[in-house]
Amino acid sequence: MNERILALDCGQSGTRGRLTDAAGEPLGGDLDLPAVRTDLPVVGQLAGFASGIIDAGHPVDTVSLGVTGLTEADRPENLLALLHARGVSRVVLAHDSVTSYLAALGAEPGVVVASGTGVVTLAVGAERIARVDGWGYIMGDAGSGWWIGREGLAAGMREFDGRGGSAGMLEVIRRDFGDPPGAYMVLQADPGRVQRVASYARSVLDLAATGDAACHDIVVRAAGELADSAATGLRLVGEVTVAQASTLGGIFRSPLMADSFAERLESRIPGARVLPPRGEGLDGAALLARLPGGHPLRVAFGEAAG
Q1: Rg over CA atoms, the chain
Q2: Half-sphere exposure of 289 (CA within 13 A, CB side)
Q3: Each residue of 83-121: pLDDT tens digit?
Q4: CA 262/CA 224 separation, integer angstroms
Q5: Are 137 and 237 within one domain?
Q6: 267/166 Cα distance (integer angstroms)
Q7: Single pTM value for the model
């Protein structure tokens, strides 16, 4: 029987799904699902996503997932136990840094920076891998959409105070919140505040492109943070001679961000090349279930069957 694989790319801004056959050929169109809440148990949410698709009349043998916010307690066998009664016999579970890497560079060595609401960098060498950042908005995610959005909002409030900031971002705050002094209270009370703050990265990138000096500086600093993470990963896995990198995430659609990242990475790792990604996170989740044995990335994900 031809194996039916459900690939899920689960992030803080939304989840996407795809049914494929064993060769990776899609069985229908891609699916849009809710975001993962990292402040709630993750495995139960994943089981809910997969169960909803199966219960809608789509039988599944293998579930292959790239997920944000995974911890050591989030085991593939636990997810399999929740899905086994629905016919699932295999679960392959990885942090989304792994599936992002596979989406961008496939099985080749290098480094991938995946920046959405958060950011994580993964480097792969001939024998080892290294993850850099991806530590969440409180302890990390430097250069991410959240980081850019937060810096942009701060620049708007600096302008409001008269400390020198971004007049453009102050107008954005007035547009969305009315009275600027009350904006921070609204954000702190919003359970979706991380995603909401990250949404302001688009305003920062747009203003930077039209000459807002403060926003331009934020984007360049973000690019430096991301380049630092990429260069660190390449050094840790010994890939500094013929180094290749790729990026995923909407912020890199900004020419300023893309160019600044490439320039700063090359200044840290001379000769490093930034290649366009081959696909997106969902493509990586689909490839995860078919990754050949012996590849260095196999140590980075869990698998359960039965």
Answers
A1: 20
A2: 31
A3: 999 999 999 999 888 988 999 999 899 999 999 899 999
A4: 9
A5: yes
A6: 29
A7: 0.82
